[in-house]
Amino acid sequence: MYITASSSASSSLLRAASSYSRTRFFPSSFRILTSTNPTSASVINHHRSLTSAAVRSFHGSVPRWSHRLDWRSPLSLRAQIRAVNPVIERLERKFSTMAAEHPFKAVLTSLPKPGGGEFGKFYSLPALNDPRIDKLPYSIRILLESAIRNCDNFQVKKEDVEKIIDWENTSPKQVEIPFKPARVLLQDFTGVPAVVDLACMRDAMNKLGSDTSKINPLVPVDLVIDHSVQVDVTRSENAVQANMELEFQRNKERFSFLKWGSSAFHNMLVVPPGSGIVHQVNLEYLGRVVFNTDGMLYPDSVVGTDSHTTMIDGLGVAGWGVGGIEAEAAMLGQPMSMVLPGVVGFKLSGKLRNGVTATDLVLTATQILRKHGVVGKFVEFYGDGMGELSLADRATIANMSPEYGATMGFFPVDHVTLQYLKLTGRSDETVAMIESYLRANKMFVDYNEPQQERVYSSYLELNLVEVEPCISGPKRPHDRVPLKEMKADWNSCLNNKVGFKGFAVPKEAQDKVAKFSFHGQPAELKHGGVVIAAITSCTNTSNPSVMLGAGLVAKKACELGLQVKPWIKTSLAPGSGVVTKYLLQSGLQEYLNKQGFNIVGYGCTTCIGNSGDLDESVASAISENDIIAAAVLSGNRNFEGRVHALTRANYLASPPLVVAYALAGMVDIDFDKEPIGTGKDGKSVYFKDIWPSTEEIAEAVQSSVLPHMFKSTYEAITKGNPMWNKLSVPSSTMYSWDPNSTYIHEPPYFKNMTMEPPGVHGVKDAYCLLNFGDSITTDHISPAGSIHKDSPAAKYLLDRGVERKDFNSYGSRRGNDEVMARGTFANIRIVNKLLNGEVGPKTIHIPTGERLYVFDAAMRYKEARHGTIVLAGAEYGSGSSRDWAAKGPMLLGVKAVIAKSFERIHRSNLVGMGIIPLCFKSGEDADTLGLTGHERYTIDLPSNMTDIRPGQDVTVTTDNGKSFTCTVRFDTEVELAYFNDGGILPYVIRNLIKQ
Whole-model pTM? Predict the structure, then answer.
């Protein structure tokens, strides 16, 4: 369906007025809060017309309630509105009349409280009396409830509701539905460009003579600053403070900009640096499970600009990653258009064996699901084994949904969920409301009762007893290696040709030993030597069992006299302050410190490439001797060039295994047969000697992880920290762009924009900018890590007086399009077939044959008014959801990407930026078609949007006479509308102006 100007008129400010009841512990200095989920007033979405002035006039006087510990009843919203203006009172009466016309008003039901009164009202699925609903997966029921509640026959139609109810028959047909998430989640790497875009959209509205206040989030937006801290200082009691000081020095301008955004835009919460990792904060604090907005109850749901937003699925909250530009449209009231997904039912049975961790389980599940094929699908877990998994274990599995390719890895709410909510400080009244609502609406699983059989698109099963200790690597998360096979696998990697499982090290060089001096101490490295050991990432640091397990390994090693080598860069970056509290309570932090795993900060760190520099002596030993050095981290991504430029082998492992490999000092070890080291008694110490039992870990969890830790942590989060609180920001609602800033720069997306859409267009005589093979990730396209000293981005910064030590990372400079355009395709490990084997961020400028940096070549093409395309293999754009992986190519002049297949979020991001995604036909690719990338390409796309269908075939021709057919990957009618407007953001602006 198309979203026309009339159908998108829901983005008005009654949405803000209708939902003042959502607030938090955060004081007004952290956010200006004027709205929550629009859906309690969804019945009148397309008629709203409250002026921003009216909203602002009562903005400051609204009382607040906390969704955690402090439940206070707000003043009646009606009373607030009446106090403002009699005109609004008349509008309210009109809206109340229209509310009675809701297509599903007959199923609006009261939810009584056990002791009398009611929790509120809700749209009841059982009241529909449709037997098909009983067979629906729980994840699909959440989509159904949202469609019913938001149904206005404009943005969401009764036909959409019927499509979802009939999911068993409609999902195989790839039907399209609209979805309105309850809220949006951001982290700072993606949040800065989102706020930049919003500020720029206000400027565009102003230039086009419209109301700039229309550019305001109309659903709750939570932004957690967690991606900026780097591991500069390690092995120090002062590491947290030292790294935070450096973080603020580097990012003061970005942080000030985000603090400005929290007050300039309504309904945006910014969680300050040093608070934790976005997904752990979401799990422990931000997640509601059930909203109660002005007495309207509905399930929590969230889309986030980080692909691991799926972690919240472990809490029974439907959440997944989207592109930054999609999220911005959702903030502004646009329904998300999505294909109704198939759902894979994954049955779990049995129980994990002694010593097996949740990390081992998720790496096993990732491999199984990847093999099954779950891209674009929901995965829903069920079965008797669910009772054996803690909420943290479930969250670990849900977190890695992007790695196994699913949109969601969903765990419906059950008694385990409720116990976790109480543990993490949610009030008894809140938990009672959640349970009552979900039971009443058939969204709660009670494993003590007979289970209604549900229908799934396909079925998988895993007996948990079959899971064995493992790690993944050396270059991809789904390349699982059983621990007992690790030594043999490593030796194979040394021998294999260069690839995902190969380094092609000559036989005679495989035993090379690089001897060097580390601060006056003799040291040595060989292939497989560990140089980075990091306990990091939301995947694992939210799970007390593996964190305390790591502490127990460190304790046993200390007691036996083992010590991590000093040249290994060790770090511990918890996902929230709660972790610190229970590690101290257990007494295990002391032993982690002794092994070098001092806490370095509260953020993503090594998992996203913020691993900091290696010691110069170590870096030189690696570079001068061409050593295949290893990093072992408890993260979720290990793509080439991501963790650190000098660690070509990167392995994902549980936190206790990270400690074990740090103690061993190498990945080239058979833990079953070879000793880890020599104890203080001169005897060999083996893996089994330091590995804790499941019972030991359970005892530590039981005695150390306590509810008051969560309460005190998240009460303190509202106070920020002195460095954040000192940041002064302007009060203006329009941003004053500084042309000299190298962090925040006004992007060119809306320059020369008019109210007339540019229309659809094909591509004529475009050159090939890059020719790729399979598995090009967003880290290859738009790296987040360090800025190489010889790169175009480095030259840009040096030319503007930025010293090399102040380069920071690409991720931290995502608010500056000039830096990010130069950083596009700048990964030092990228392989471009045009270079005939040379690795690095360069390409061939076809007209001249010159070998240039990709950015320089792209500018040559743009200056000559030549369009460009990219050729690629399978899984193009896999990895982190990264809007700059689409924005960057657009700024470089890329008009289309022709690939064997696309990662879900990246494909939608390309469409959102006006780039055409095309798929080769099955069995074909650039190589089989004889395409070298030296041709010029013409894509024959109809010039009238009405002549294009989602998923239709188009013809691509080259200047040397080749012709082949591709599928155009506009997957929905709405995506066609975005392309017609030149992208999603111009589309939103034009529709907002037309209201």
Answer: 0.81
